[in-house]
Design brief:
This protein is mostly beta strands. It contains 5 helices and 26 strands. Helix content is 7%, strand content 33%. Strands 7, 8, 19, 20, 23, 25 and 26 form a 7-stranded antiparallel β-sheet that branches. The protein starts with 17 loop residues before the first helix and ends with a helix. The N terminus is likely disordered.
Length: 423
Amino acid sequence: MSVKLYVVSALAVAVAPVSLIADAQTQSAASITVNQTSLSVQTPLLPVASPTAGITYSQLGTGASQLRVFTDGFLFCGNPGPLGTGVVSLIPAHEDQSFMPATNVHPWTFPQAQDVAKVNYSSGVLNLNRNATGVQWTSLVCNGVGPLGEAATGLSDGIFRNGLDGGAETNYSHMINWTPDPQLAFNWNQPDWSQVPVNPCVSTLSQPATVDEDVACAAVTGVRPGAGAGPVVPQRAGTIWTDSHDAVKFTYLFRVDVRTGPQPPQGPQMPTGTTELPVLLDSATITDAYGGALVKIVDAYDASLVAGTGQYCLLTSLPASLGSGVCSGNPQTYPLANGPLSIQFGVYPAPMGSGSSSFYVAVVRDLIGTHPNYVTPAVGASILLESATLQLGGDRFNGDDVAFGFMTPNSAGGYGFPWMIEP
C-alpha cells in the first residue's frame, strides 16, 4: 500500500450525544467547522425537523448516526478516498430564503457524506473531525463557501488580499488562481474573460498562477464558447453555463481540471493542456491512488426547481450551444437515479497515466418548478480531493473547488451573485 494511506481506526470516535446537539440548536450564532471549512448555521423555515433547528442528530439503531446541518452558505461534502470507520454520516442542507413571500422557501439537495469520526461542540461551534490540536483526518472532505459564493480566502496557504478591494476584485481573486499582467489593465469589475486561463491547473510564464500547486491541483470552473467563427474555443466564465429554454429540462455544464505532481517545465510553446476523460472508479472498490490523486465530483441543486432524476455525460470538447440534447449519442452518458451527481475517478502520473485530466460535465435534470431570483444560484458543483493528498499539500489553492449556475448565463443576462454584476 502507498505510504499516503491514513489510519482512521486509531481516531477516537465520539458519537454526538443528543444533549450536545440540542445545546448547539439553541445557539443563535452557531457555526460548523468540518476539517478546515467553517460556515454559519442557518435556521430553516420549512418544518424539516421537530422542532425546526439548524442542527439535528438521529441515531439509526444500527450503531450508525446521521447529523443534518443547515448552513447559510453552501457545504459540499463527500468521500473521495477509502472510507474510514467513522459511524456518523453528515447531511449538509441549505434553504434559499431570499424569495418573497417568506414562506416561499427553496430547499437545496446536497450529497450525503460518511466518516464523521469526531464530534464536539464548544462556544457556539460544532466541530467535526477536529480537536484541540487541529484536524483529525478521515476520508470526509468538505468544501464550503458563504451565501454569496464567497470564500474566506481561496488561498489555503493563508495569503490574504487587500481588504480595501471591492467585492468583485476580492472574490474573483479568491476564485481564480491567476495574477493578471499589470500591462493588461485588467479589471475584475468588468472582466475580459478571454484573458483568463481556461485550465486552472496549468501555469505559464505569460499566465502565472498566484499559488504554485506543486503536489496536486483540482478545479471545477465555468466556461462558455469564445467569440469568433471556426472551431469552438472554451473561454473561462465566472458561472456555470445553464439552459432551460425547452421548459422541460434544466441543463448545466462545467469544466473539470485535475493534475497530480508539480507543474511541467515551462517553455515558450508549452501547450495549454488537452482534454482527457478520467478513469471512473467504483466507490465500493476504490483503493489508494499509489502516488496519484483520487477525486470526486458532486453537485447540489435547488430542489424546488429541479428533480433528482436525469442524466449526465462527459465531454472532451465544448459544444457550440447548450440544450437538453447535449448528451444525445454520447457513449459516456450515465443516469441520475434520484439525487446528487457523484463522479469518482483517479489521476495518475506516468507510467500509469498522463498525470492530468481535463473534461466537461453536462448535467440534464428534470425541471419541476421555477426560480425567478436571478442573484441566487440554481445549481452548484464541487470537486473533492482525497484527504491523504490534502495532507501532503494538494489543492493548495481551493478557491476554484466550487462553481455555481444561475437561471441564465452571466455573459448573456448579467445574472450571478450581486458582487458579480454590481461594480
